[in-house]
Amino acid sequence: MNEHSRVLERDKLNIAEPPSDVDLRLPVQVPREPYPIETLTPDARQQTRAVGQRATRPDGRLHGLGQTKYIDDLSFPGMLYARIKRAGIASARIKRIDTSAAEAMPGVMAVLTGKEIPTNSFGPTFQDQPVLADPIVRHAGDGVAAVAALTEQIANEALDKIVVEYEPLPAVLDPVAAMREDAPKVHAPDSNIYATKVIRKGDIEKGFAESDHIFEGRYSTQMIEHVSLEPHAAIADWDANGRLTIWATIGRITLARSDIARTLKLPMSRIRIVGTIVGGNFGGKNEISQEPALALLSKKTGRPVKGVFTRGEEFTATTTRHPIIMDYKTGVTKKGRILARQIRLVLDGGAYCSWSATTLGKACILSPGPYKIDNVVAEAFVVYTNKTMTGAMRGFGAPQVCFAYESQMDDIAKALKLDPLEIRMLNAFDEGSSSPTGQVLHSVVVKESLRKAAERFGWEPRS
Amino acid sequence: MKRRGRGIACMWYPIGFTVDANPSAATVKVNEDGTATVLTGTVETGQGSLTVLGQIAAEALGIATDDVHVVSADTDTTPMDTGAIASRTTYVTGNAIWLAAEAAKAILFETAAPMLGVKVSQLEAKDRKIQVKNFPQRNVSIGDVARRSQVVIGQPAIGSASWNPPTVAMDPETGQGKPFATYVYATQIAEVDVDDETGEVEILRIAAAHDCGTAINPMLVEGQVEGGISMGVGMALQEEMLFDANGRHVNPNLTNYIMPTSLDMPEITVDIVQGFDPTGPFGAKGVGEPTAVPTSAAVLNAIHDAVGVRVTSLPATSEKVLTAIKAKRAAEQKQIPA
């Protein structure tokens, strides 16, 4: 008997036929009657050639049975509840914060203001956002103080007892107005235009000169919230060894750890971030928010501290989708070939940068559309306004510019009496086409997607 | 009267993002019973990414989805990851997991080669076995090999790897460069009814054809497309954060911030466009964000087709659509000579 088979023999003695997946599951009490799920035979999860299988999600069962543990389902002994007082004013200087009445309330364990945060700024690109505003409030959703209390109700009541005296400052809400030199500066003395991007390809003037028709249009989009089912939530636990553990609804734990280390001036080795199962991100949970405040409240009280944003805070105090004002000028031949496209984008960047620089870049690069255009100029600006900050959201500026370039595409088609499908097939990228940034594109299937969707829809050209 | 219209919109979208590097690292551990555990720093945010990442590891190791358990999102234990952002998880994290699984598999092959009396290069992992290429009857189970690697050879089958998409920085003056490693493409076509007396728009159906390279899990791709369309519907017709003159948000609640419910959803058909990207794991790219990109454009083009008005600011609320219809009628009446 060789060494190899001896090992196998030993294991055969000890390990019986392994129990099936069903045997290992927790007995489920609700629903009592087995739910009539159609059993797929053979089960996609059991197939070897795993790629391409319509495998069910292992977490789907837990979601369906209400067993998934989101932050709000987690609790630790002695845990406190935190709430953050929001400014409610778009632009102001904090003159004075009086927290004494709140601190005197029974059940309030700690109160925190911006002055107590070691490095009171964060952000994925520019560190321009405070954890708690001090002393400048730049949008109504800025936090100005945080409370940790025995219950959420007490924490809420304590917020009302905190007195904040503001000196109102002029606010700028319109991004175009914010670009003017005499506009109030959101981050004085810096310009409100905080990032720009430009793409130049070919000769735009020549392209327009050679065009038979020029189309111009202005398109604009609105501010949108992600509205994840689960709000931003976190629990911070600063232990007796000075090691901080944070359970959080964050899509980027690596970045979160370095941001939290920076704000708290704490070595990274003392911080552990656990990303829980997140009830929807869509870009809204790509950066830290209340976590440093919860950590400091935990340090002050020696207890774990939980913070869960209200739906209102989700709107006013977290990132949103950029409103964009988009000017398109497009030169085409009689037959509908696009020769030149000039684009100017103004992104409403809200009070803080967040993921605006990334959104600006993507919107600018994608703005000419998936079309072969030899002459392109695209300029994009993102500006501060005294509104909720805009940041990452599913598409990073792409849904906005797609609305613009595809609206204009149909206007061009209509004017030239071309079918909307036909004009797109005429201009769409092919394998090896050059993108507006001069990148040679590979695995390009935009025409296949047009054909496939048209076939499924039953698109027939109208005469 | 209700007027029917159709609108088409196509799009392109990059996988990953431009700012700095965009890496992921991963560890794949093959257990003594032939199952595997994947460690990744990405976060499951509801999209099913952990399922897809498990499928990638399973495919590389020749085992089933059920044989892989994915552990994620703990800075103390899981490898660095740029995160669940920018439609990058399947492509970037997937590539890292694939490479890590290949590294673990290389250890298994080293153990299996003498067991089967062949060279490492002659082996393949398939159907939970390590077998000789073209001679599948000459095989050992992956569990036996993993156990031998660990217990006899003393080299557990664990692989770690990282991957970063190749990009070229953009020129600051001209923007020329290779900002993204790859792109996906998609088309959505919407059919709507527009009530020309009230401006109300009902989206009847949307045909969506999306490219994601290889669909690692077609069911989850379909789920992403349907979810993305629901966001696109809200953007097209309903959702808008409104501020008063003092900069205070006036509708920070779901009573006054209207978003689509299941009752507002059109009938959706999803087609996955056949594609293969040689730079992705098993040819995969990504699908998360692009699904929300063309919807509002397609819907607004359908409104234009139905009633002949071009609404240029989103959302196309009933008020905006009706105002545009009235303006069009007024303009047309003026053209009639007296």
User: Main beta sheet of chain A, described?
Assistant: 7 strands, mixed
Strand order of the largest sheet of chain A: 3-5-1-12-9-10-11
Major sheet size, sense and barrel closure of chain B: 4 strands, mixed
How many beta strands in the DSSP annotation of chain A?
A: 15
Name the helix and strand elements of chain B from N-terminus to C-terminus, one letter apiece. Answer: EEEHEHEEEHEEEHEHH
Order of helices and strands of chain A: HHHEEHEEEHEHEHEEEHEHEHEEHEHHH
- In whole angstroms, the N-to-C terminal distance of chain A is 82 Å
Low-confidence stretches of chain B: none
Mind explaining what this structure looks like?
The complex is a heterodimer of chains A (463) and B (338). Chain A is α+β, with helices and mostly antiparallel strands. Chain A is 27% helix and 22% strand. Chain A has 14 helices and 15 strands. In chain A, the strands form 3 sheets. A 7-stranded mixed sheet of chain A has the order 3-5-1-12-9-10-11, sandwiched between helices. Chain B is α+β, with helices and mostly antiparallel strands. In chain B, 31% of the residues lie in helices and 24% in strands. In chain B, the strands form 3 sheets. Chain B has a 4-stranded mixed sheet. A 4-stranded mixed sheet of chain B has the order 4-3-2-8, covered by helices on one side. In chain B, a hairpin with a 2-residue loop joins strand 6 and strand 7. Chain B is elongated, with a radius of gyration of 26 Å. Chain B starts with a strand and ends with a helix. The model of chain B has no long low-confidence stretch (mean pLDDT 96). At the A-B interface, helix 1, strand 7, strand 8, helix 8 and strand 11 of A face strand 1, helix 1, helix 3, strand 9 and strand 10 of B.
